[in-house]
Amino acid sequence: MGRAFVYVILGGGVTAGYAALEFTRKGVQPGELCIISEESVAPYERPALSKGYLLPEAPARLPAFHTCVGAIDERLTPKWYKEHGIELVLGTRVKAADLRRKTLLTATGETISYKTLIIATGARALKLEEFGIRGAGAENICYLRSLSDANKLVDVMKASSGGHAVVIGGGYIGMECAAALVTNRIRVTMVFPEAHCMARLFTPKIADFYEEYYESKGVNFIKGTVLASFENNSDGKVMAVILRDGTRVPTDMVVVGIGITPNTSLFEGQLTMDKGGIKVNGQMQTSNSSVYAVGDVAAFPVKLFGGGVRRLEHVDSARQTARHAVSAIMEPGKTREFDYLPFFYSRVFGLSWQFYGDNRGEVVHYGDFAGARFGAYWVDRGRVVGAFLEGGDREEYEAIAKVIRLKIEVKDLAELETQGLNFAVQVNQQGLPDGGRILLEKPIYTWHATAGVVVAVSVAAVAYFYGRRRKIL
């Protein structure tokens, strides 16, 4: 028993939806494309789970956030796939892949063959059980990676209304879930091993702003330590979190955000791996010419980093790599090498920030930290390689992105601090006259073609501590 398709997308996350839309625009014919997903729903915008699904009032619900509404494009409902002759094989796990024979074997025993495969298997959330934490299977311990995770979290929040939650991890998921919990009138304690939140991206000064803001909303921070164990009641629910330093934190629920790991096990030994994922070239093509990889699982060369291979775990990278892979498959002669500008963003409470490039080198802060309108540039070996802005508008975010794409050489950091956001805005407005040079009032900034790229937020430092603990055990 089996089915055959020209193109198969393995994985039903963000990348699958954006790839499907691109396939239709590149002329895929009805019956040629199949999407296989373990989830029981058509691809959706995963960021909506932490940014809208958990809200107590007017929460985001399907079909409102099916892909590709995140890019202000068509919304791909199940009806859309049917109308375009795209087969959705949902609620289905692939247990084996034979890339030489170009076949996939599902858990039900069906064989699905292809001519071209796009691996869009994404990543899974790291679980506390993997680090030997006893009691980690309690029903009031939540993660947030899928729609089913979000549904469980909503139910647990309702049962804990007016109570207290402990959030393990100070990264994206930790910060966004903490904001959602507070909005649901649940008191929050955040626990993480680093000296400040979002330690892989934020400077201490930037982190101080967000921590103070969160504290004004009632969030308590416990930094520099990690979870050691749980204290459960007779029903098996967590009633307190015990930290490594001995602190006991009573709680009604726990949210865990300690990182993710790419889903590559089906392809190990069959494809070249790098950076914890599947290595691809500038066309998103793997070491097997009939197989492509996109999204969280893909390790691809980044031109802004001199072609260095990076694996970026963010929705923007997922969308862009999906589109590029389809273009390379359908129009190989017209598709150039992938040229991606690393981009990260978040929205919590009334705050909104964006970051472009790489956070290495010297940091130049600017703006009004008291008024929630501030930013920073990262300057490495005389060049601006990263830019962060809180509270900007569309034009201003586009401006800081352009600054990174143009790879500026800066001779006076004090002047850069003085100019602040105006520096990027002037660049955006002036363009590149005089053979690639822009003259600001003081001093002269010369533009060169070198690189900057963000190393993706992957596994939070919590996982490092737990990993060490597991090895000791």
Explain what you see.
By secondary structure, this protein is an alpha/beta fold. It has 3 domains: 2-122 and 261-330, FAD/NAD(P)-binding domain; 128-258 and 458-472, FAD/NAD(P)-binding domain, CATH 3.50.50.60; 359-447, Enolase-like, domain 1. The protein contains 12 helices and 31 strands. It has a 5-stranded parallel sheet. The protein has a 5-stranded parallel sheet with strand order 10-17-11-12-13, covered by helices on one side. Strands 24-25-28-27-26 form a 5-stranded antiparallel sheet. Helix 8 (394-405) crosses helix 10 (421-430). It is globular and about 60 Å long. It starts with a strand and ends with a helix. The model is unreliable at 432-473 (pLDDT under 50). GO terms for molecular function: monodehydroascorbate reductase (NADH) activity. Its EC number is 1.6.5.4.
Name the beta content range.
25-35%
Number of domains: 3
Provide the residue-averaged pLDDT.
Answer: 91
Strand order of the largest sheet: 4-3-2-8-21
Q: State the major sheet.
A: 5 strands, parallel
**Low-confidence runs (pLDDT<50, min 5 residues)?**
432-473
Give the proportion of residues in helices: 25-40%
Put simply, the count of helices is: 12
CATH architecture of the largest domain: 3-Layer(bba) Sandwich
CATH topology of the largest domain: FAD/NAD(P)-binding domain
End-to-end span in angstroms?
46 Å
Q: Could you state the CATH homologous superfamily of the largest domain? A: FAD/NAD(P)-binding domain
What's the number of extended β-strand segments? 31
Structural class: alpha/beta
Radius of gyration: 23 Å
CATH class of the largest domain: Alpha Beta
- Global outline: globular
Transmembrane segments: 445-467
GO molecular function, one term: monodehydroascorbate reductase (NADH) activity
Pfam families: MDHAR3-like_C, Pyr_redox_2
Family: Belongs to the FAD-dependent oxidoreductase family.
